[in-house]
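Next up, a specimen:

>
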Amino acid sequence: MERLALAALCGYVLGSIPTAYLVVRWKSQLDIRSSGSGNVGTVNSYEVTKSVFVAATVLILDFAKGAAAVMLVRLLFDQGSDPGPWGGLGAVLGHNYPVWLRGKGGRGLATGAGASSLIFWGLIPTWVAFWAVSYVFIRRVNPASAVACVLTFVTVLVIPALLPGADRMTGMTPAWFAGGLITLILLRLIDPVRSYVLELKRQRSVP
């Protein structure tokens, strides 16, 4: 258990590197935490800088953090059960709640995808498919992300065999990994989803 805790800690340290904050600061001298939506992630990086290059750079780096965390902990703690899922979840926790930014980070989608690509890659196309369908009806990025997260987790619980990579997981069950990952993401989606719901209520109350 100590080995897995260390794997999670290593993942947290790597995931906590505030890539969006650093890239936006370098490009525009702005603090992304107090600009746009305040989220330290890809979408807000674009909203703040209006630069596709900046947004793409943040996306790639955030994805790489998740994948690198899994590879690092496997290299350092490769005895017994796979430490990769612990390192991956630690990376998402670090990205979402980085100590360097007093806990104000991103939502963990890109970092979670990077970790999942080496642990349980079937989560990625499943989530993307659910997001695309949800966005058609909702037309809001964050609420669609929340719906996709919930539907992806339900799919893992009900028919995990349909998701590629589930049968190869060790060190943590697919349900536990998906549940932990999606919980971390949903916690950071509460505020935008709440704002969306309040907006709908205001629209319906207008005569």
Remarks:
- The radius of gyration is 17 Å.
- The CA atoms of residues 60 and 110 lie 8 Å apart.
- Residues 2-205 form one domain.
